[in-house]
Amino acid sequence: MNAATSSIPLPFDHREAHAHLSRIDKRLAGLIKRVGTFQFKLDECDSVYESLLEAIMHQSIAGKAAQAIFARIRALGTNGNCPSPEELLRVPTRTLRRCGLSNAKVAAVRDLAQKTIHGVVPTLAQAEKMSDQELVDRLISVRGVGPWTVEMFLIFRLGRPDVLPIHDYGVQKGYAITYHKRKIPQPKELLRFGERWRPYRTVASWYMWRAVQLAGPKARKLTKVKAKNTRTRISKRVAKKS
After folding, report:
1. Chunked in runs of 10, what are the mean pLDDT values of the chain (242 residues)?
2. Shared-domain flag, residues 152 and 52
3. Is 46 a catalytic residue?
């Protein structure tokens, strides 16, 4: 199997990931066989700032709408580049609102720009040397950026091999489909089960997303277990990035 072509190579051997997961999890092995090639392409954003800026656009809205809004934001920069943090801070609120940002997202992107200038948001070179948990702890200080957003950055930009987004609704649903569960799992249940997928939980998550696509309309029959203070997310970037 070969990963989808990208100018940025994966920082891990996806063939070893397939072999490991297939060896320790027979149900996942069957899913891997049905889905086939691991078509995973990393983002090519030039900075952590730009990657998180795009991620904020994708929060709580459909993928195509988010892409359209991000294109308008990018157009605010010079020479066809994404606006720098300094440029973004000079853009009037009314202009950002016309681009399609809610008031909450305007506040989030401004905070992202300020924290990038102040060095809270690391450079890409710095991020590559930091652990997953160090990046989560650092980046969730940005307004509007939670663990799920950082996990998407770890997966789709840095290509970290062992990330399990337990609050992602697509991963939850894919798990329920693959392992014949009648209800969507709680995040803690998924976290416990996912221990067997180490050190390639990113690859297992990618196949959970594919399981939902394979199930089609049947996936809608699954119900979610109600629990207090349980957040669910679904990566609207998956179809675009895979």
Report:
1. 57 91 97 87 90 91 91 93 96 97 97 98 97 97 95 94 96 97 95 98 96 84 58 51 52
2. yes
3. no
